UniProtKB/TrEMBL annotation:
Protein name: 3-isopropylmalate dehydrogenase
PROSITE patterns, per database record: IDH_IMDH (PS00470)
Molecular functions per Gene Ontology: isocitrate dehydrogenase (NAD+) activity; magnesium ion binding; NAD binding
Keyword Acetylation: no
UniProt xrefs under InterPro entries: IsoCit/isopropylmalate_DH_CS (IPR019818), IsoPropMal-DH-like_dom (IPR024084)
Record Pfam families: Iso_dh (PF00180)
């Protein structure tokens, strides 16, 4: 039995993740689901957002469907996602940007950089250590090159003209691309952000460091309708977690207006990871047909609620199976 851990998280995670779970249950009734609670809501109630027992539960899953997490500006609160990524060694963050005229995959190093978790506060300053290691750079470069070999080419996003740590990252990525026989070029991240938005057809697979990848992929959401449309995968050698790119959006939580497409597409990525590309494609196609029929949530100019949009996708999936 394939076990899937379901983490709704905070805010709109409680609305979009149930929609994605319903679809997974419809296309793969053989999956075994179990709930895991982490996040700010749990922290407020118990003083712990995520503990070792929780991490053990997540480790026991074959895949994790993960909702949005609220991270408050509180020095006592540790980022849940950073904890989980490090504990499960989910070193590759994969964010596909797909839509009309756009087919780009941003591969982001996921365990170090400015999200290394090495931080301290002094009387006159607060410090965060940016870590770019040889091991971390080599394995994310290899992951990106493997992906690019089945596509077209690789771009290495960087700021090596200013940051010495990026010189190491660029050298390693370009060497791995040569070794893999992948066409490769480099681009400074500020110019890359603009050019990707203006000329997305020029790009295929982009690999970059942690913070740069976070910003670049969020900006690229503009190309396909916003953050409500973007899924992501957090991949390691033994574990995998799938989550929408958007945040917990507490300002719209509980109003049945959140866009569940990113969560649904994250669930589709989960299925592909489990070796079921046919079901993943069926779920993606169902989303496409619903959008084409003009059924859209308010962020896309429509008036469909979260639950109603999910029900429409569920009906389309059912028709596809009939």
């Amino acid at each position: 039995m394939v076990k899937v851990a379901v983490v709704e998280g905070d805010g709109i995670g409680h609305e979009v993740i149930p929609v994605a779970r319903d679809l997974l249950e419809a296309v793969r009734p053989d999956l075994e689901f179990f709930d895991v609670e982490v996040g700010y809501g749990r922290w407020e109630r118990t003083g712990s957002a995520c503990d070792e027992e929780t991490i053990a539960d997540l480790r026991s899953a074959d895949a994790i469907l993960f909702g949005a997490i609220t991270t408050p500006p509180d020095p006592e609160y540790r980022s849940v996602l950073v904890q989980i990524r490090k504990a499960l060694d989910l070193y590759a963050n994969v964010r596909p940007i797909r839509g009309e005229g756009v087919d780009v995959v941003i591969v982001r190093e996921n365990t170090e950089g400015l999200y290394s978790g090495i931080e301290w506060t002094e009387p006159v300053r607060a410090c965060t250590l940016r870590v770019v290691s040889r091991q971390g750079s080599e394995r994310i470069a290899r992951y990106a090159c493997t992906l690019a070999k089945s596509r077209r080419h690789l771009t290495v996003g960087n700021k090596a003209n200013v940051l010495k740590s990026d010189c190491l990252f660029v050298d390693i990525c370009t060497a791995e691309a040569v070794r893999a026989g992948v066409p490769c070029r480099t681009s400074y991240i500020d110019a890359l952000c603009l050019d990707l938005l203006m000329h997305p057809d020029r790009y295929d697979v982009i690999v970059t460091t942690n913070m740069f990848g976070d910003i670049l992929s969020d900006a690229a959401a503009y190309l396909v309708g916003g953050l409500g449309m973007l899924p992501s995968a957090n991949i390691g050698d033994r574990h995998a977690l799938f989550e929408p790119v958007h945040g917990s959006a507490p300002d719209i939580a509980g109003r049945n207006i959140a866009n569940p497409v990113a969560a649904i597409r994250s669930a589709a990525m989960l299925l592909a990871h489990l070796g079921d590309p046919a079901s993943a494609a069926a779920m993606e196609a169902a989303v496409g047909r619903v959008l084409s029929a003009g059924i859209r949530t308010p962020d896309l100019g429509g008036d469909a609620g979260t639950r109603e949009f999910g029900a429409a996708v569920l009906r389309e999936v059912g028709r596809g199976k009939a």
